[in-house]
Structure formats: C-alpha cells, structure tokens
Amino acid sequence: MSLEQGATPGGARCPACGEPLFVWVETQGWGPREDQVVDRCENCGLVVGRDSVPDAEAALAELLALRRGTHSNGSGGEAATPVAIRAPNAASVQAWLGAENWAALRPGDTDLKPTPRSAELLLEKQGLQVRSIRHLPAPGMALMWQTLLNLLTFHRDFAPEALSGRLRPSGGRGRAAFAIDAMVTVLAAIPTAILAVAIEGGAVIARRGGVIEVSAS
Prior knowledge:
Elements: E1 21-27, E2 36-41, E3 47-49, H1 56-64, E4 70-72, E5 78-80, E6 83-88, H2 93-98, H3 116-124, E7 130-135, H4 137-150, H5 158-164, H6 175-205, E8 211-216
Antiparallel strand pairs: 1-2, 2-3, 4-5, 6-8, 7-8
Helix pairs in contact: 4-6
C-alpha cells in the first residue's frame, strides 16, 4: 500500500544528488518475506529500500556492479573504459502504474532502482559521461506484464514464486488466496500480455520504458 509521503527518519539523503529521500511505497510481503518500505528522491527519482540506503560510493559500486572496466591511461593511472548498465527504470510508466506492485520491486530485493538522471549523476562521480540511454522493449514488456498481473493477485509475482516453490498453497496468504491467484493468472495471462505490449510500447516511444541501458565512458 502507498504511504503518506514524508521525509525519511534520520534525514537520509539521496546518494546520487544529496537531496532528502521521501517515503514512496510499502511492499506487502507474506510468510517469511517481510513488508518493505521503499524511499524515493523527488529530485532525481532514485528509488532505494529504507533499510539499505547506501552512501554515494556504495551506490556507484552497486550501479556499476561487474560491468566496469579500467585500463592504463599511459601515465601510471587508470581510466575508465566504456560501460553499459542495464537496470529497471524508476521513472518509467510501469513504476508509476504499479507503485508497490511494480514487478521490479521483488520481495526482499534491496537493490537501488535508478532513473536516467540519477544514473547520470552517479556515473559522473566516477568521471564517466553518459553517451546514450536506450529503453529496451523486450525486458520492459516482461516487467510490465508481471506488474499488470500483480495488480490483480493477492501475492506479488505469484507465477514465478509459485513455480519456484517459494510460495505454496499452505503458505503465503492462505489456500483460498493461492487458488484465486492461480485462476486469475491463467485467465488474465493473455489479455494482460497484449495490454503490456501496447502500454510498454508507448512508454518506450515516450522514453519512459521500464528497463534502461545506460552507456557511458
């Protein structure tokens, strides 16, 4: 459920731009998966879990992950080679539409979710300049599809969680909710897939796609 917006306790600051973080949503867990408060920066749009707000250096390392390379610049130092970072877009149509049901906010996930602007700011701290930002249709449509299904079911990410065995009829929100979610998922799979293609296709054209690839050097 969405929470009343307000500054985070302790005055937590956005690691990308330094502005205050505000409460955005609370994702609803089940069983061992606890509810999670998610914060957002109203300046650059960066989204981060309440209990995992990193500092700027840690946020940059998380964004770069294993995609960063370096090479000698000929003077004994190191210069960054081009990097390409793929991540869910917190400024996307699906993030706005889904809110706490956005499929990128997976149960227990503490990874930050950048926007094009916040990614640019974090990369600048490493001396990298963004060269291009692509909005990727296929992975974005998959996330949009799951987001639309999440709006209809009691359990978030019902199909992948049930198929993996992490969610069972005897767990979660009970057998009745499990049975209803199974029926709704089967009946709504094709209609929501068609809708996801249409909505995400328009979002990509408007440069508000659900998955971005940021290239920098």
